[in-house]
Design brief:
By secondary structure, the chain is mostly helical. It contains three helices and no strands. The N and C termini lie far apart (46 Å).
Amino acid sequence: MDIVKLNNEENFNIFDFELTGQEMESIKTLDTATSSFFDHRDPAMVRWLGERKAG
């Protein structure tokens, strides 16, 4: 078996697990509905981002 085929098979195997209902509920609690970086709705932040130069 060549290495590419073996790697592809290993990569596909990332889907060979199941989460329990409790694990799914735990994952749901991680969503705080806020940005970890900045508030995209904050006018001051939007203005600051608009003033940045690319490059």
